[in-house]
Amino acid sequence: MFYDLHVHSSISTGEDTTDELAEFAKKLGLGGIGIVKHHPDIVHIEKRNDIDIVNCVMIKADSAPEVNEAAKKMRRRAEVLMVHGGNYDVNRAACENSMIDVLCHPELGRKDSGLDHICARAAKENDVAIELNFRQLAESYGTHRGYMLRNMRRNVMLCKEYDAKIITCSGSVSKWNLRSGRDMCSLAGALGMETGKAIDTCSSVPEEIVRRNRGKLNGS
Amino acid sequence: MDPKMLPPTIREKRRYIAYEVISDGKIEYGDITEAVVNSAQSLFGDFGLSEMGLWHIMNLYDSEKQRGIIKCAHSAVEKARLAVTAVQMAGETKATINILGVTGTIKNAQQKHLK
């Protein structure tokens, strides 16, 4: 079952409602989508029978202490806890915090990849997945796109080296940004992952994160 | 704070292309960077450009002799050479880039080709 854990609906910065996104995702063959809200906004999301709706919370912070503080507050209220990457201090704090599930686009707005071997090792130890964001690829162009791909490739290389988890998400703000699971995996495949492992970045890895956190939230 | 430098065992291997620019007028650092990146992009596309990992080293560019060093991934030296060689214009001036050699370290490139 394919999951896309990074989808913005109209309750955060997206254009379409959760229902519209869910219908479109179903058409594309996705088994579940993660509707992202920004910390500290908490909105209740209706679950559906036909597609798995995952309650994701994104922490957008400027410093490491802010990440840790927000993670403590939000952990019990989110099925998947994500951090908005880009700042190196924030990236590292996210990798070193076992309450965080996903570090999103660590290379966002940077000249370098935003991760080093210390972060990659910490991400492995704390079970934090590093995200490859498909929208960044789709919406960038020219030289910037070349440098962004290079940074993503470097992050994939680091994660492979230290055996850290990678997930591929669409990062969509509208239903037109959504992609089918197998198509999203092609980004991980093109950046140097073996096909099987690239497919896992959209299927078994996010599924495992969701299953583990639901188990914890239900007290099992 | 910036990411730490990776340990040598997992650092990507690099090659350094020493070049000289032959032109009628004076060519600045930025003109060459733009020309080389545009050439690589038009030849190999955005994805190819990302694989090459091109980096024009700023403080090693000698504007008098018009010589400098371009860093690239060791797996894409031939592509990088081709992209550099394909340059015909730098800024507003007609120019050609002559590759002096490819080395494994900056020190070697400086000693062999830039002195």
Helix and strand pattern of chain A: EHEEHEHEHEHHEHHH
Low-pLDDT windows of residues of chain B? none
The share of residues in extended strands of chain B comes to: 25-35%
The average pLDDT value of chain A, as a whole number, equals: 91
- What percent of residues of chain A adopt helix (DSSP H or I)? 40-55%
Unreliable sequence segments of chain A: none
Termini separation of chain A comes to 23 Å
Name the structural class of chain B.
Answer: alpha+beta
Mean pLDDT of chain B: 92
Q: What is the name of the CATH architecture of chain B?
A: 2-Layer Sandwich
Radius of gyration of chain A: 16 Å
Strands in their spatial order, largest beta sheet of chain B: 2-3-1-5-4
Outline of chain B:
globular
Gross geometry of chain A: globular
Largest protein-protein interface: A-B, 25 and 17 residues
Which oligomeric form is depicted? heterodimer
Kindly report how far apart the N and C termini of chain B lie. Answer: 36 Å
- The assigned structural class of chain A equals alpha/beta
Q: With helices defined by DSSP (H or I, 4 residues minimum), what is the helix count of chain B?
A: 3
Topology:
The complex is a heterodimer of chains A (220) and B (115).
Chain A: E1 3-7, H1 18-27, E2 32-38, E3 52-59, H2 64-74, E4 80-84, H3 88-95, E5 102-104, H4 117-125, E6 129-133, H5 134-139, H6 142-162, E7 166-169, H7 181-190, H8 195-200, H9 204-217
Helix pairs in contact in A: 2-3, 3-4, 4-6
Chain B: E1 14-23, H1 29-52, E2 55-56, E3 67-73, H2 77-85, E4 89-90, E5 93-103, H3 106-114
Antiparallel strand pairs in B: 1-3, 1-5, 2-3, 4-5
Helix pairs in contact in B: 1-2
Task: Walk me through this protein's architecture.
The complex is a heterodimer of chains A (220) and B (115). By secondary structure, chain A is of the alpha/beta class. Chain A has helices at residues 18-27, 64-74, 88-95, 117-125, 134-139, 142-162, 181-190, 195-200, 204-217, and strands at residues 3-7, 32-38, 52-59, 80-84, 102-104, 129-133, 166-169. Chain A has nine helices and seven strands, in the order βαββαβαβαβααβααα. In chain A, β1 (3-7), α1 and β2 (32-38) form a beta-alpha-beta unit. In chain A, α2 (64-74) packs across α3 (88-95), α3 packs parallel to α4 and α4 crosses α6. The two termini of chain A are 23 Å apart. The mean pLDDT of chain A is 91. The N and C termini of chain B lie far apart (36 Å). Chain B has one domain: Ribonuclease P, Pop5 subunit (Alpha-Beta Plaits, 2-Layer Sandwich). A five-stranded antiparallel beta sheet of chain B has the order 2-3-1-5-4, with helices on both faces. The longest helix of chain B has 24 residues, at 29-52. With 115 residues, chain B is α+β, with helices and mostly antiparallel strands. Chain A binds chain B through residues 88-89, 112-119, 141-143, 145-150, 153-154, 157-158, 161, 190, and chain B through 1-7, 10, 12, 37, 41, 46-47, 49-51, 53.
